[in-house]
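Progress against Task 2.4 (sequence-to-structure conversion) is shown through the following example record, which the project officer requested during the mid-term review.
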Amino acid sequence: MSDLDLALSKIRPHTTSSLEHQKTPANLLCAIEATLDDRKTERSSTAYFAALLTTLDGTLQKDASSGLAFGDGDIIPAELYLLSLVAPFVPPPVIRGNLNTILSLTSPLFPSLVTHAPPLRSQIGLYGPVIRALDRSQLEVQGVRQSFASILQLCLDHRPKVRKRAGEAIKDILSSPPTPLMRHPYGDRVAEWVKSTLADVSANAVSRSKRSASNMEAAEIALHLLSVLRPVILRLPPSSLSAIVTLLLSLPRLGNSFLSQSAYSILSDLLSAPTKDDDFNVASEIPQILKAVLSSPPPKSDAAIAPAWLGLLGNALLAYKDANPQASAGELGKVWKAVWAFLESSDATIRKASCQSLSLLAQCFTPEFIAPAVREVGESEPASALGKIVLQTEKAFESLAFARSMSELLFTVSALVSNLRYREEPAGPTAAEVLLLPLVQRIGNIRTEKNFEHKEAADMVLSQAMATMGPAVLLNALPLNLEPPDRQAGREPRAFLLPLLAQSQPSPLGHFVSYFVPLSERMFNYQQKAESENRQSEGKVWTVLIAQVWAGLPGYCWSKADTREALSATFSQMLSQILYTQVELRSFVLKALKVLVESNVAIASQDQVLLEKLPAAVRADTISQEQAVKNVGFLRDQAESWLAVLFNVFGSVDREARGMVGEVIAAWLGIAGDSAIAQAYRKVFELFAQNLKKSQHDRSSTDTSSVVAMTQDILILVLPYLSTQDASGLLDVILSKEVLTNPDNGVQKRGYKILARLVEDGKVGLDVGPMINRLDELSDGLSPAAKKDRFQLYSNLLPSIPPSALHIIPSLIPEAVLGTKEPSEKARGAAFELIVAMGKKMAKGGVVKRDLVDGMDDDGTGEAKATIEEYITMIAAGLAGATPHMISATVTAISRLVFEFKDIIPKNMLNEIFSTLLVFLSSTNREIVRSTLGFIKLAVHTLPEDLIRPQLPRLVPALLGWAHDHKNHFKTKVRHIFERMMRRFGFQDVHSCTNGEEAAKVLVNIKKRKDRAKRKRALAGGDVGDEGPSQRPTTGNAFEDVLYASESELDDSDEDDEEVAAAAGRRKGGDFATRLRLDDDEPMDLLSGAASRVTNAKGSRRSKNRQDIDRFKKDEETGKMIIEESDTDVGGVPESDVAGTAYREALTSADGFTRGPGGRIKFNKDTKKRRRDNAVEDEDVEMGETEPIRPGKKRSGVKPGHEFRAKVRILKKAQLSSKNPHDPSRTQKAGGDLKKKGGLDPYAYVSLKQAAKKSNRRSHLGVAGKR
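C-alpha cells generated for the chain above:
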C-alpha cells in the first residue's frame, strides 16, 4: 500500500459524515475515482492531480459570475484540500510541465483566501511541494515569486495553524534546493525579509501590513518570526548571518522574557551546529556576542531566560576556541566568573544549566591556558585564570552558599578533571594531578561519611579522576584500606574505588603487577581462612573483591609503554594458570589479552577505522606509534605460546563460552608470524586427524567426536591465516568420507563450513567439476543438520565455474530444489539463495553442454546458450517428478525464481509458467496444491496485470474448488487470494468468471465481509480504505514478505475475529459479549421478555458460596455472621427425599459409580452433560427452598425439590392459553414461529432426529432446518 493510498484511505470513509468540511472532500474523491475507473485509468498521483486541476478550473469558471465561495461544504476548499494532499506524491516533471496551469488557477486565490483559514492552509500545502519541484529557471517566474512572498508574509499571521503551515512550507522549500545548487536561491529573499522584520521590531515600528488584521505588539511579531527562523537559519546565506546575529542581540532590550529566551536559544544553536562549509563562519561575531550577552545578565532567579543565557555563553566560547584558541583563552576567565555565580541560584533548573555551561567552558582549556597554573602551584595567591578557578572551586566546598549546589559542584569538578589531561612532559604528571589532587582527595574523604547524600556525584568525580590521573596516583592519595590490619587501625575502607578500575586509564601495567597482584593473593588467603573457619559470608565478600580487582586488568592493557617489561614470564604464567583454573576470573584475563593486542595494533598501524574503536581517553593520552610498533613485535614473539594456551582453554570450556576465547585467538593470530601460525596449525591438525581416526574405530564414543568438532572450530579460526599449501592439504582431508559422512552431525556441519570458507578465501586452486562429483558421491551419508552449510558451499563454488562448464549446474538443481522443503528455516534460506545464485550465473551467459549433463537423453545432445529461460526450463523438469514432494518443491522454486527475475523473464514464458502451474490446482495432493496456492498468491501480487487478467476465467473456478476446504488453511488462503484479486482487478471482473450461483456466493460473501470490516473500522475511528489491509511486521526477506507477511490472512475476516474473540472469552473468562441476565427471584422466560434481560455488563465472578454469605447479617463489632431462625425451619417445608434419590444419584451423577459383574467399582465419567444436569438439579432444590408454602395449602403432584420445574410448566401453559392472537410467543398449531405481516419467514426448527432422517437427500438440511 503506497503512501498516497494510505493518505486517501483516511478521506473516503467520511462520505457519511455529519460535518460538511469532511463530507465534501470525501464525496469529491469518490466521484473522481469513479471517473478514473470508468475511463480505465490507473489511480496514480498524476491522474488524481490532473483530475483535481480540471475540476478546480470548471468550478472557478462556473462560480466566477456569482462569486467564489470558501465556506464549509463548498467545493473549492475541498478541491484545494485534495490538491494539497496529492501534490507531494506527484512526480516533479509533471508539476514543472503544468506550472502555468497551476499558477493561473491557484495564485489569484491568495487575496480571497486570507480570511478563510482552512482553504488558506490547503493553498499553502499545495505550493510547498510545487515550489520544491521547480528548477532554477522556473523559480524566477513572477507568479512563483509572488506566491512565495505571500507564504512568507503568512509566517507572521495571527492564526497559529496558518502560521505553522507557512513556516513548514518555508523550511521544506529551503531544505530542497534545485539540482545542483547547495543552497536554495530563495534563501537570500528569506534572509532579507528576516533582517527587515527584525529591524522594524527593534525600532518598534512595525508597519500595519505586517500585522495582518490584528494589533500584535512588536515582541509578539518577533516571537513568530523566531519560530520560523530557528529551523531555517542554517539554510540562509552565510553572508547574511552577521547582520542577523546583530539584530538578534538587540531583541532582549524589548524586555520580553520569552523573546530573549528564543533569541539566546537560536544563537546557541547557530554556534553549536556542526558544519563543513568554510563560508559558514560567524566566529568574527563571537566577541560581539560575548560582549552583548555579558552586559545584560538575567536575574539569578529567572528560570525562563537564565538557562538559555548560560547555554549561549558556553556554546559561544566553545565555538570561539575552535576558531581562535588564543583569543578565547583571554575571555575564558571572565565568562567562567559570570557563569559560576549562577551556581548559587535557588532554582534547580538554573543550577543545572550553569554546571552544563561550565562543562562546556572546561572544554575550552588549551595548553597555553593550563601551563601558567601548573607552574605557579604552591604560591599563596594564584595569578593565572585557571589557578583562580581552582581556588574558587576549593573555597566553594567550604561555603554555605553552595550547600544546595553540591551535586552541580561535583559535576563541575568532574568536568575540570576530565579536561586537564595536559602533561608538560610525556612521562610527567597530568595537570589534573598537580592542580586538583587535593580537592579529589577531599571529595574521597567526604564520600566515606555516612550522612553524605551525593555519593553518586562523588563517584562520578572519583571515576573521572581514575581515568585521568590513573589508579597509581589516586590509590596513593586514597588507599583502599580493605585488609584486616587497616580495619583494626580504624581506617575507613574504600571498596567503592574497586569498580572504578574497569575503564581505560593511564597508569602503567606494572602498577597492576606490583600492587594488585599481591593484594589479590592476600585476599585469596583471607577468603580461604574465612571459609575454613566457617565464615561463609566473609568468604563471599573476599570473592567479590578479588573479582573486582581482576576486572580492572583490561583497563591496564590499553597500549601501555611498559608492556614489554610488565608482561614478564612470571606474570604470563600466572595469567595462564588463571585461565586454566579460575573460571570466574577467566573472562577478565581474556578481555585483557584481546585489548593488549588490538590497542597496540591500532596505534602501530594508524588505521583510522581501528583508532575510532579505541576509547576517547586512550586516543587523547596514548603512546607514540614507535612504542606501539615495539609492543606489537614483543607480542608477536609470544604469540606461539599464547596460542597454545588459548587452544587448550578453548577445548576445556563449554561450547557456550567458546565465543570469547575464539575472539582472543583470532586477535593473536592476526599478529602471529607465519612460522607460529604454521606450528599452531600442525598441532591442531594432528589432534584433529588423531581423534578422527579414533572416532572411526569407536563410533559409540561421544568424547572423541566432541574433540573432533572442537578441533574443527579451531581450524575455522585459523583458516584466514593459513598458507596456500596448508589450505590445500586441509581441503583434501576435509573432502573425505570420514568427515563428510561422519555419524556426528557437528563434525559434518563443521566440515562443510571449512570447505565453504576455503573456497570463499580463494587460497586453494579448485577444479569445480571433480569436487562437485566428489560431494555428490558423499551425499548418501549427509546429515540434515549439515545441509545449510552444504548449500552455502555450493553457492561459494558457483563463481569458480567457467562459462563453458555450466553443464555442472543441472546436477545441483535437484538437491537445491528439495532443499526448499527442509524443516530448518536456515537450510531453506540457503537453498533459496543457491537457486537464485545459479539463476544469476546462468543469466550472465555461457554454454550448457547437454551431452555432459547426467541423465540427458541421446536426442538432447548439443550445446545450449545459458539464459534464465534455459535455467527455468531445467527447474521445471521437476514438475514431472515421481513424488508429490518433488513436484511441490519445484513449484516453490519456480515461485522464487519468478519473484527474483520477473523483470527479465519474457512475458510469453511467464504466461506459460502460469498456465502450467495453474493445472496443479486440480491435483488431489494437498502438498502440491499448497505450493501452487503460494505461487498464485505471488503471481497476483507481482506479475503484470495484463498477464493475469486473461487467465481469470481459468483461475477463478480453479480457486473456488478449494474455497470450502478447511485443512491446511486452504479456505483462508483462497479467500485472501480473492481479496487481492478484487483489489487489483475489481470485483465485477472476478465475479464474472464464476460458474454457477453457489460459486458466486463465495465471492459475494468475501466482498460483504470486507465491506463489513471497513464499516467496523470506520465506526472505531480507524483507517479505512479499499486497499487497506492490515500488515504484519516484515521479515527482512522480500519473497517471504509477499508470501506470508505482506498482509494478514486472518485479520480481514471479521467472522474469524469474532470466533477467536469468543473462544478467548470462553477460555480466559475475560472478554464478555452480550449475555442473558439471570434473576434469582423468578424463573427466566425464554419465549417472552428476554430482550429486557440482555446485558453487556460483566457478570459477578464471586463464587456462589460468597454470594450466599452476603445474605447474612454481620455483627458490627465482631464481624461474625448472625443466622436468624426462619419460619421455614419450623413451618413445615418438607425436606427433600434424600433416601429416595440416593440410588438415582449414584447412577447418574458425576460423582456416582456402578459395580460391574465381578463386583468391581466403575466411576461415572465426568462429562459436561453430567455436570450440567447436576447443576440444574442443585438449582432446582435451592429455588424450591426459597418459596415458602402457605399454611394449609398442599402441593399436588409436585415432588419435593422440583418446584422450579413445576413453575416452568405452569408458565408455559399460561402462555399457550394466551387469548392475544398477536402475541409473538404464541404458536399456531405448533407450526413454528409466527410470521409477521411484511416480515421474513422465520427459521423452522426441527429436532436432531428429523434432521438425521433427511440427511440422505441431495439438498443439505442443517440442524436448525436452514437449507
